[in-house]
What we know:
The protein is built from seven helices and six strands. By secondary structure, the protein is α+β, with helices and mostly antiparallel strands. The strands form two sheets. The chain has a three-stranded antiparallel beta sheet with strand order 1-3-2, with helices on both faces. The protein is globular, with a radius of gyration of 16 Å. The mean pLDDT is 92.
Amino acid sequence: MIIIALLDDILVKDIAIRHGVRDLASLKQFALYLLSNLGVPTSANKLTGMFGIKSAVTISDFFSYFQDASLIDFVPQFSYSLKAQNRNPKKVYAMDMGLVTAISTSFSENLGRKLENLVYLHLRRKYTSIHYFKEKGECDFLVSQKGKVSRAIQVC
């Protein structure tokens, strides 16, 4: 498939060669894992040890490489504290739903997560400050403008 070849090109040319990543197999497994877990809160510490990657710093580097290559994006948890936003897990979203469909190995279609990802892509076009909320309750997206929450969006 052409889209799988495109993913391989992104991983090799835009990430591995550019950033000197030698373990291409782990990089690819990690990318497939993230693209298969849309809308799931994740952190470098939580994923340490997966795919033979033993360092949270390496995983954080991979996160930034994937973002720089426009493969995935992250949404932080809402907090007025920047420290808490950076410390808390971030939800992962794919920048191209075609890649998600092409690499899917799931037995279910995960329509809810795909819809949530599509809503994120739409919000991303209109707003720069997007968060998710999770305390006693949960809300998929909070949109802020001028430092104030202007919209709360629950995808269902």
